[in-house]
Structures are given as C-alpha cells and as structure tokens.
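Example record for the data management plan.
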Amino acid sequence: MVISLSVIVLLFVLAWIFLRGGGLKFSHALVCVLLGFYLANSSMAASIHDGVAATATALSSLRP
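Corresponding structural encoding:
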C-alpha cells in the first residue's frame, strides 16, 4: 500500500505539472493513464466513484 500510494502521489504531481504547463504530449497522456489505473486499483476507488456519481446526478438535475 505504501508503494502504490507513493506512486499515486508522484503520478498526481506529474499530471498536475503537465496540466499547468499546457499542451498534452504522448508522455503526459501516458502519465495520466497510469494515474487512472493506479487510482482504480487503490482503496480510494469506491470514494472517487461515489463522488463522481453524485456530481453527475446533481448536474443532470440542473435545468438551463
């Protein structure tokens, strides 16, 4: 768990730097994909899924 958490943090920091720097290159996209795979296998996956589902539900109920 410690190794995967540190990898998640490292990939998150790299993705944040790439996002702030602008322009998405192939290596940047690869880092983002790896971050997604590690997050999906972490213990945070259920919480992230519930948060995204709740946000989608809230947004779908809004009327323009």
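Summary line stored alongside the record: The chain has one domain: 2-60.
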